[in-house]
Design goal:
With 370 residues, the chain is an alpha/beta fold. It is built from 15 helices and seven strands. The structure holds adenosine-5'-triphosphate and magnesium ion (MG). Adenosine-5'-triphosphate (ATP) binds next to α2 and α9.
């Protein structure tokens, strides 16, 4: 029996759970500043005071959700008269659903889904809060999903002004925005009571990504399954966008590929294949992290009507009103992120001109954009 062949009842995975996206990581590094700012803002709640509201923003996969969950669970352990309610606005995407979720956390009772008006339910929620003399801290995660039809404004407004109508109501809000450049302005009525501590989650740098992934490798696999070279390769893929989820998912899929061919180690090809097979998933996630102007430009390129820089700029300028410098920067960014090729052609009408073409199937790009 050759030593590098995996037997049918053997595995290269050790603690598989650390390679799942919903795993709550024990090792949560490179976010000390953000964790500190969050704790500092929420600390007053532990003493029965209204906490400082927070606005967390940053690109996808930069640890926003995890940071809030970490601080919540730490503070919950301390006890105190505080209720921490987490709302995933992607799942609870109406103002009624949001308030129901909080109501349930506070009272342990699931409110009826119909026949109750939002106002009425909200009133009950606040009455309960005042009577119990608790402080309520609400995390509205992925609040961007409430940005349509003013749901976000109404939820925020209700929570933040509750004390005006119900003296003694103590509510703090943590709004979490996965910012893709399409920045949202809350209604001025909300802005004047929100006054948040703004906590920024920048993209991780290459070394930080590598360090976090190395930790997953250490627990997720048995020793020597993932070489330094393979870890570099995976980090390189992740560094294209900075979304850690891509890396965690790649580790798992590359591991499964290795096992499929009964190998004790993950090869460069295993990773390439894993990246390829989840190509669209990554592509869509990555495109989601572009700003809206960059998306407009990418869409024009994918539609392929104007490949020459001059014509492309004209269309781009018409839609966005942005000037040539910004256009030029964006072309370079799309090229750097490997969405497009921008090569000089020898034979443009007016001499040398740049031809810009998508590097992915245009249909794939358009699918992700819509
Ligand atoms: N500093 C870190 N250390 C270890 N794991 C991390 C770290 N940051 C993020 N992760 C992991 O990366 C994944 C994405 O993190 P998280 O869900 O917190 O990102 P997010 O900023 O909320 O993204 P989105 O904007 O898409 O909601 C999770 O699986 C999380 O465990
Ligand atoms: Mg999140």
């Amino acid at each position: 029996m050759k030593n590098d062949i995996l037997l049918w009842d053997e595995t290269i995975f050790n603690h598989v759970e650390v390679l799942e996206l919903d795993h709550f990581p024990e090792y949560f590094a490179h976010r000390d500043k953000q964790l500190q700012a969050l704790k500092y803002s929420l600390r007053p709640a532990m003493r029965g005071m209204r906490p400082v509201n927070c606005l967390l923003s940053g690109p996808p996969g930069t640890g926003k959700t995890t940071a809030v969950w970490k601080v919540f669970s730490e503070m919950e352990e301390y006890g105190g008269n505080v209720v921490f309610a987490k709302v995933n606005c992607q799942m609870d995407s109406t103002r009624f659903a949001v308030i129901s979720r909080i109501y349930k956390k506070l009272t342990n009772i699931t409110p009826p889904t119909s026949g109750v008006a939002f106002r009425k339910l909200f009133e009950k929620l606040v009455e309960h809060l005042v009577e119990s003399e608790k402080v309520l801290v609400v995390a509205l995660d992925d609040i961007n999903y409430l940005f349509y039809e003013k749901h976000a404004d109404e939820v925020m407004y209700s929570l933040l002004r509750a004390h005006e109508q119900y003296p003694g109501a103590k509510i703090g809000v943590i709004a979490i925005v996965s910012d893709t450049g399409r920045s949202y302005q809350f209604d001025p009525k909300v802005g004047s009571v929100f006054l948040p501590e703004e906590i920024d989650f920048p993209r991780y740098e290459y070394n930080e990504l590598r360090d976090i992934l190395a930790n997953r490798v250490k627990y997720g696999f048995f020793p020597n399954v993932v070489s330094e070279e393979v870890l570099d390769q995976i980090t390189g893929y992740v560094d294209r966008t900075g979304d850690l989820r891509v890396g965690i998912n790649l580790l798992k899929r590359a591991g499964l590929n290795a096992e499929n061919r009964a190998s004790r180690t993950i090869s460069i090809e295993d990773v390439e294949k894993a990246y390829e097979s989840s190509r669209l998933l990554h592509l869509c996630r990555n495109i989601g992290s572009l700003t809206s102007d960059e998306r407009t430009l990418l869409e024009l390129i994918a539609r392929g009507e104007e490949a020459q820089t001059g014509d492309l700029y004209k269309s781009f300028h018409e839609t966005t009103k942005l000037g040539y410098t910004r256009f030029f920067e964006m072309v370079n960014k799309l090229q750097a992120l490997q969405y497009v090729d921008a090569d000089f052609s020898g034979k443009g009408k007016r001499g040398r001109t740049r031809i810009i073409t998508p590097r992915y199937q245009p249909d794939d790009i358009l699918k992700c954009l819509h």
